[in-house]
Fold Bifunctional deaminase-reductase domain protein.
Amino acid sequence: MKTQYFTATSLDGFIATENDSLDWLFPLGDLNDSSYPEFISDVGALAMGSATYEWMVRNAQKVATETGFAWPYTQPAWIFSSRKLTIIEGANIRFVNGDVQHVHTQMRAAAGTKNIWIVGGGDLAGQFYDAGLLDELIIQVGSATLGKGKPLFPRRVLSPVLRLVSVHQMGAGMAELRYEVHKGGVSGAA
């Protein structure tokens, strides 16, 4: 079982625009032509930040058009937020806040032998990293630049903590990088 941060980023290191839009990403490739179908089949639980969840709520129709469902996950999800948020009908979600270590224990129990996916955002993935719980980063880099926005991983991580284990080209617009987090040398946050 691994705790994985699987996300897409612009070439200049942003996962969303400053307004939390992901519209830049969709023209770059088809999700079904990526490693996502295989990846999601091994996921047993999800962690999601409030900005990512709110994007899902705002774009439920777009998500439903792409995937067939407004909430495309069958796995239980933990939504990290200090605010009260709208519930997506039919979603198996829990709203939580506070320390990721305690919630990670609950997620591990729910996931069984499957992996935990840190869906987004970058700071939430960073909190799992800070707690020594993040095992792998799977980063799909798109051939677009945003200039500013929500950062991929707002932490200072110096070599050799992240070990590149694979690189895969996905069409003309994306490349996937997989990094293993070497637990013997976790650096502090910046």
Summary: The first strand starts at residue 3 and ends at 10. Strands lie at 3-10, 14-16, 43-49, 77-80, 93-96, 115-120, 136-142, 150-151, 162-170, 174-181. The helical segments are 36-41, 50-58, 60-67, 100-111, 122-130. Confidence is low (pLDDT under 50) at residues 185-190.
